[in-house]
Amino acid sequence: MSTPGATERKLILTGVLLATFLAAIEGTVTGPAGPAIVGEFQGIQWLSWIFTAYLLTMAVTTPIFGKLSDLIGRKPVFMGGAVVFLLGSLLCGISQSMGQLILFRAIQGIGAGALIPMTFTIIGDIYSIKERAKTQGLLSSVWGISSLVGPLLGGYVVDYLSWRWVFVFNLPFGLLSILFIARYLKEEKVKREAKKMDVAGVLLFAAGVSALLFGLTAGGQNLAWTSPLLLGLLGTSVILLVIFLFVERRAPEPMLPLSLFSIRNIAVSTGANLLVSTLIIGLSTYVPLWVQGVFGESAALSGLLLAPMSVGWTLGSIAGGRMILRAGSRQTGMLGLSLIAAGAVGLTLMTADSSQLLLLVLMMFCGVGFGYASTVFTIIAQSSVGHDQRGASTALNTFTRSLGQTVGVAVFGSWLNLSIDRQLADQPGAAVSGADINSLLNPHGGSTLTGDAWNSLHGALEGGLHSLFIMMAVLAVLSLVISSGLRQGVPSLNEEKAKLKEA
After folding, report:
1. Residue 486, Cα to own-chain centre: how many angstroms?
2. DSSP, residue by residue, 267-281
């Protein structure tokens, strides 16, 4: 790849930031549109799949597009992904049924599966390690900003325009992103031996991961965990993924190079990243539940108390990008994970009488820690390998994040339901069940509960969430322990070794 000038790099960065923001915000901006969509299509039982379809297809296709970019270049993969993403957005905006909307969201997710890893990879290609650390911090902060701005923007669009505009407002920005990349990103055509895509690996991976993520998402919601269909689905996914590993070991150009895991920093950061990602989705989902169900406050306040996590993420991403150049991977990563662990352990000490200010501070701690950690993991993924594996390595980092969030949703949701049911069962004579939690959380439903029923449900919810916070704290501490295995020093040293091997 030819090195672009300073002005060209700024324009490429602008295109990359636009694409990252649009792909990231689609995961949050659609939340406020849910009630309006259900009101028009009358499909509340399928509401969660508007989000699941996007996240699932994005997770499955991310490693595939990452490897493809190593074979044919970043530019065609980025532009192809952007076109698919914008096509999906347009189709979502004009969909006429819930089934169509879910299908078009899946198409959007496929486009995001190409866009998201390519944005990080392109930055890794055009910037030196010193510039890359700062720029990746800026790019990582876009995720924090999108989680903060997304719900606010979505609510405004739904209230004053239509839910359809949630999907089509990004078309002009996406086209602008394509224009910048098409015009200013120059890739040299390097003559190399003809390399074929690992078709068998792609098919096995897509089928196995799709079955796994679908099963984890549907488990406890659409299907019981003891359902033969669900168990068969999960069993099939395990078999397909085991076969996938055997195929990858023998493939001349594997879709997922297993040699990546022989690099210490990548292996360690992948393990820590998986746990951190479960914490991100866990806090985003269950802290608002604590605020509304245990504190008895409004949904608006729950969003406000969660906002410091997004702000902290932005600050931590920028600071982490600078610190890694001075202190190296291990110290920067462990600082971020120490902040996350401190915030997670602090949550276990909270009660119904705790101060809301304490929760606000804990969310800030977690947010800053997430910013540090995400920046370190991304830079490690890019700087521990040479150019011909950077796309696959970066995609692995992105896929790990998606996998962690999907697993977190499934595990935490099942644990909370079991915990609440167990606590209610231990209360002799309690005339309520776990299903009655909905009445407690409903702003108007709580008034219909008797005093004893309200106390039973409130206590069960507090106890269930407290046990969930303990689980999160254990995962946070475990991720900190894992991160101690990172190597000292700036990751570029590993990159130089990779280049020497290539030469």
Report:
1. 22
2. HHHHHHHHHHHHHHH
Q: Are 371 and 141 in contact (CB under 8 A)?
A: yes
CA distances from 230 to 173, 227, 409 (A): 41, 5, 16
Please return the burial class of 502, using the count of CB atoms within 10 Å of its CB with bins 0-12, 13-18 and 19+: exposed
The Cα-based distances of 468 to 10, 323, 411, 455, 463 in angstroms read 44, 32, 10, 20, 9
DSSP code of residue 486: S
Q: pTM of the prediction?
A: 0.77
Encode 63-110 in three state secondary structure.
Answer: HHHHHHHHHHCHHHHHHHHHHHHHHHHHHHHHCCCHHHHHHHHHHHHH
Please, are residues 333 and 369 in contact by the beta-carbon 8 Å criterion? no
Q: Which residues pair with 219 in a beta bridge?
A: 223
* CA-wise closest residue to 93 among 4, 167, 16: 167
With H, G, I as helix, E, B as strand and everything else as coil, classify residue 385: coil
Torsion from C-alpha of 297, 300, 304, 305, nearest 10 degrees: 30
Report the 10 Å Cβ neighbour count for 226. 8
Interval 233-263: pLDDT, tens: 889 999 998 998 888 888 877 877 788 888 8
Tell me the average pLDDT across 166-173. Answer: 83
Distance between CA atoms of residues 503 and 500, nearest Å:
5
8 A C-beta contact, residue 384 and residue 393: yes
3-class state of residue 350 by DSSP: coil
What is the tens place of the pLDDT at every residue in 148-158?
677 667 767 77
Residue with tokens 């930055």: 123
End-to-end CA distance of the chain: give it in Å, rounded.
Answer: 16
